Amino acid sequence: MEPQLYGATIQIERTFHVDKSGSYCLKSVGGKVVSKKRQDLDHILNHFEIQVNNPVFLMNQDTCRSFLNSKTPKELYAFFYKAPLLDDLEKLVEDTRLQADESLTVVHQKEEEMKPINEAIETWRKKQAKCIRPETIQKDIDNYETDLKIKDCHSLKKVLDDAKREVLTAETNLADHEASLVRSEEKIPILEERLQEERRKEEELRAGMEGSSKAVSDCRPEMAKLRAAVQDAQRAMNDCAGELKEKKRNLASLETQLDTARNQQGLQEDDQRRIELETRMDEASTRIEECRINRDAAAADKRRLEEELTDLKHRLEPILNVWNAEQRAIENLDQEIRKHQGTHGGSSVVARLGREAVQRKQIIDELVQRNALKGQILGPCVDLLSLRDQPYSAAVERAVGPWLRTYILEDERDRQVVTEEFRRRKVSPPTLDCALGSGQKFPTTEMAFNDKCNAPFPTVADLLTFKHPYVRNVLVDALNLHQIVVMPTLEQARKHFRDGQKFPHCRYILDLTANQHSSDADGYQFLPGQSRGVSVLAADFEAQIEEKKQERDDKVAAQETKREEKQQLEGRIKTAQHQIAQKKLELTKLQDLENRTQAQLTGMKNDLHSMKTSQPTDIQVLLDEMEELRGVVEQLQTQFDDLKDAHTKAKSKEAKADANLKAMKEQGQAELRQQDQILADILKLENSLERNEADIQNAKKTLAAKGKEVEARKAEVETKKAAFEESKQALLDSGVPIERLKVRVKRTQAELEEMIHQLETRLRLINNDYENSWEFCQEKLDDLISSKTSVEAQIVSAKKIVELMGKNYRLRAGNFTVARDKASETLCACFQTMMEDRQYDGRIELDHEARSLTFHVNPHRKTQQEDSSIKSLSGGERSFTMVSFLVALWQLIEIPFRVLDEFDVFMDMVNRDIAMQRLIESAIESGRQFIFLTPLHFSQAILDDFKTSASVEVVRMPTSRHTLPAVGVLDDV
User: Residue 855 domain-assigned?
Assistant: First the structure.
C-alpha cells in the first residue's frame, strides 16, 4: 500500500446492485479513485482493524414479524455467525490452515526433488573417486620407481645387517663357548674333589659296616648260649614236672588205698568221689600248665620268626627299589629306542620323529604330486629349521614342543582336503595351521619383533635358522621364541635377578641343567631344558641312539647281578612266612586245648564244693604215709616254681639280647642304604665327570670351527658394506631425501613392477577418455551441487513459511475460539437484559457443535409457566423478541448505519415504548447512526425523553394521502 496516494483520508464506497451483488471503490482525500481491488481493501481493513461488509442494517415490519418464526435454528445461527463476521474469521483460519498444508506439500515436493539430485551427486562422486588424475598417476609411478631403488638399497642393507648380526652372533657364540669351556674346565677339579669326598665317605661307611657286622657275629654265640640255657631250663622244668606228676600218682594210689579202707568202714561213696575229683583236678592243672609252657615257647618262636621276616624285608626293600628304578629306566630306554627305530640312521630329520611322522610326510607328498592342494604346504616344522649350537638342542626342542610336527598351509581350504585324505587312509592327521586365509600367498619377508628380550643371553629364536621366513614368523609369534632366554644354569639366572638386572619382555627362561619346572618371585618361569630322551634337533642323533642302547645294556647287566640276591631273599621270606603260619596254627591248637581243660577243671571244682565231706576213720598208717608223700609233692612243687622263674628270667635275657641283635641289624640296614646312596652319587659324579670331559673336547673342536667362521663372515661383511654404500650414494645423487631412505618399503619388487605397469596402462587410458576423466566428473558435480544449493535454499525458505503459518494458524484458531465464545456470551447477556426490561424470561441457547441457535421466551413471568416457543408468541411479543435480539446482535457488529422500518406495527403501546427507549439508549451508547421509521405514535413520556436528548431528532413526515402519519427518529451522532 502507498499512503501518499490517499492523503489524510481514505474513502470507501460500496455499491449494492439489483442482483444482490456489491462492489467497492477506494478514493483519496480529493475523491480520486485509487483502487477497486478487494486485496487492497482487505489490506486497509486489516491494518485499521475495521469492517465494511455491513455498512447498513435494514429491517421492515414483515421481517420483524416473521423472521423468528420462519427461520430454523441453523439459519438463526448462521445469521448470528455472519453478523460479527465470525464466518469470515473461520474462513480466514481455514485458509491459513490450507496455506500451511500447501506450503508443507511444497516442502515435501522440494525434498523429493532433492533425492534424484543427491543420488546423481553420489553417483558422480563415486565415479570421480574411481577416476585418478594423470598428475597423481605419474607421481605414483615416480614414487614406485624410487621405491624400487630404495627396495634394492634396503635389500643390500638387510643383507649387510644380517651379515653383521651373524658376525656378532658368531662372536657371541665364540665367547660363550670359550666361557663354557672355561666353566667346564673349572668344573672338573670340583667334580674330582667331590668324587674323592664321596669315596672317602664310602670307605668310612664300609669300615663302620664291618664293625657292625663283627658285633652281630659276636652277638650270635651269646644268643646261642642264651637259647641253650632257656632250653636247659625248659628240660629241667619238664623233668621236675614229670617227677611231680609221678609223686602225685603215688599220692593218688595211697588215697585209693585210704578209700578202700574207708569203704570198709562204711564211708566209701563220698570219699571216693571226692578223691577222684581231686585227682582229676590235679591232672587238669598239670595239663593246663603244660599247655601254657608250650604256648609261651611257640609264641617266642613266632616272634623270633616275625623279627627274622621283618629283617629280611628291610634287606629286600632297597634291593627292590633299585631293581624297580632300573626296570623303569630300561623301559624308558626301550620306548625311546623303539620310537626312533627305522629312522635310517637318523639321516632324515622327519624320520627321527618316528614312523607315524614319516607316514604323514608320504601322504602329504602324494597330495602335492597329484596337485590336490590349491596352495603351498610347508612342513613338518622340524624339517624347516636347523640348530646353530648343538649343546642347546634339548632346550630348544623343549621350547618348540609339538610345533615340530605341525604343517603350515597357504590356503585354508586345503585343511579339509588333507583331513579327508588322512581319514580315508585311517591315519591320524597331523596338526595343521593357517593364519593367512584363502587366496593369499606366503610372505617372503621376515617380521620384525620389537618386543624382543634384551637379556645378555641367546634366545631360542637366535639359536634357530629357518628355511622359510613365514615359518619363522609363525613359530616366533605363536611361541614367543624371541622372549625365551636360554641360560646355562639356574643359579646364574637367579644371580642376575638378585643383582637387580630385570629383563624386559622376558617371559620364560630355559635352564639347561634343570629337569623340573619352577618359578621366581618376580614372575619369571624357569622351564626345564634337560631332557632324558633323544633330541631330534641334535646333529649326533645316531650317536645318541647308540648311547641309549649301550646305557640299556649296562642297566640290564647290572640288574642281572642283583637278581640272585633278590631271589635268595625272597625265598627266605617265603620260608619264614610258612613257619610263622605253622606257629600260628600250633598256638591256636594249644589255646583251644587250654580253654577246654580249664573248663573241665572249673566243672570239677564246682562238683567238689557241692559234695559232703566225711571224717576219716582210724587208718593212721595210710594217713602218715600220705602226709609224708604230700610233703614231697610240696617240695617238688616249690622246686618246679623255682625252675619256672629261672626259665622266665632266661627268656627275658634272651629277649633283651634278641632286641640288641635286632637294633644292630637295623643299623646295618641303614648303613647299607647309606652305602647304596653314596655309590649312586659316586656313579653320578663319574658320569658327570666323563660328560664334562667330553663336552670340553667338543667345545675345543667347536671353538676352532667358529673362529674360522667368524673370519670368513667378517670378510663377507666388508664386501656387502661396499655394495650398500655404492647403492645409497646413487640414490642420494638422484635427489632422494636421506629421511626417505630410512623408511622401510613393505611391497616386494615384483609387486612394485606390476603396479608401475598397471599405472602406465591406466595413464594411457585416461588420456584417451575425457568423458570418464576426473575433470569431467568435477564439472558435473559442480552443476549438481549448484542445483542442490538452490533447492536447499527453497526448502529452508518453505520450512520457515510453514513454521510461521503454523504458528499463525494456531494463534488465529485460538483467537477465533475466544472471539466466538465472547460474542456468544455478549449476545446471551444483552438479550436476557433486554427481555428482563419487559419482565420477560428470555434466553438464547447456542450450540456451536450443532451450529444452532434457539430462543426460549416466557412472556408470562408471573405465572411461572414453562418457556414458550417462538411460534406460540403473539405478533407483538415476537416483534419485541426480534428487537431484543437485534439490539443484542448490534453489540457485536460495527456498521455505520442501522435502519428499522415499521418494526413496531405489531407491538402494543407498552412494548413499543420499552423497545424504542432501549433502542435509543443503545444508539446513544454506540455512537452510530440509527434511523427508525414507524407509522405509529409514542407516549408523551417517551417523546418528552426524546426531546430532552441532544442526540435524538424527531422528524415528522408530511401527511400523505395514501399513508398514515409517521414519526421518524434520526440519530445523527
Answer: no
Regarding whether 706 and 565 lie in a shared domain, the answer is yes
Cell numbers 446492485: residue: 17
Task: Give the rounded percent of residues in the chain with a pLDDT score beyond 90.
Answer: 0
**d(C-alpha 308, C-alpha 575), whole Å:** 11
Nine-digit cell at 259?
A: 578209700
Residue 525 bridge partners (DSSP): 508, 519
Residues 6+ apart with CB under 8 A from 395: 460, 486, 510, 512, 529
Return d(Cα 154, Cα 724) in angstroms, integer: 8
Which residue, 730, 759, 779, sits at the end of a domain? 730
Chain centroid to Cα 717, Å, comes to 52
Q: Examine the domain organization and report whether 252 and 325 are in the same domain.
A: yes
Name the CA radius of gyration of the chain, rounded.
70
Range of the domain at 519: 359-533
Contact predicate 143/717, CB 8 Å:
no
Q: Does the residue 81 lie in any domain?
A: no
Query: Using CA atoms, how far apart are residues 557 and 550, in angstroms rounded to an integer?
Result: 11
What string of H, E and C letters represents the secondary structure of 135-162?
HHHHHHHHHHHHHHHHHHHHHHHHHHHH
Of 701, 730, 759, which residue is a domain's last? 730
Closest to 497 (Cα-Cα) out of 524, 517, 518: 524
Number of independent structural domains in the chain? 3
Pick from 864, 865, 863, 855: nearest CA to 835: 855
Residues 202 and 307 in one domain: yes
Q: How far is CA 948 from CA 219, 927, 941, 944, in A?
A: 175, 18, 11, 6
Checking if the pLDDT of 949 tops 60, the result is yes
Summarised one tens digit per residue, pLDDT across range 238-273 is 777 777 777 777 777 777 776 666 655 555 556 667
Residues 6+ apart with CB under 8 A from 118: 788
692 domain residue, yes or no? yes
CA distances from 269 to 132, 261, 262, 461, 612 (A): 151, 12, 9, 116, 10
How many Å apart are CA 636 and CA 905, to the nearest integer? 185
Q: Are residues 317 and 369 in the same domain?
A: no
C-alpha to C-alpha distances, 965 to 62, 901, 906, 917, 935, nearest whole angstrom: 19, 14, 17, 21, 6
- Enter the C-alpha cell of residue 333: 630306554
Same domain for 326 and 213: yes
pLDDT in tens, 494-543: 555 544 455 665 655 655 554 444 454 444 555 444 445 556 665 555 66
484 and 586 together in one domain: no
Measured CA to CA, the distance from residue 368 to residue 377 in angstroms comes to 8
How far, in Å, CA of 777 to CA of 766, rounded? 13
Same-domain check for residues 367 and 236:
no
**Bond preceding residue 402 cis, omega within 30 of 0:** no
The length of the chain, given as a count of residues: 973
Residue 897 forms part of a structural domain: no
Are residue 424 and residue 301 in the same domain, yes or no?
no
Laid out side by side, the sheet with 33-35 consists of: 11-16, 22-27, 33-35
Instruction: List, for residues 367-408, the tens digit of each pLDDT value.
Output: 888 888 888 888 787 777 777 766 676 777 777 777 777 888
State the number of CA atoms in the 13 A half-sphere of 158 facing the CB: 13
Q: 835 near 857, Cβ under 8 Å?
A: yes
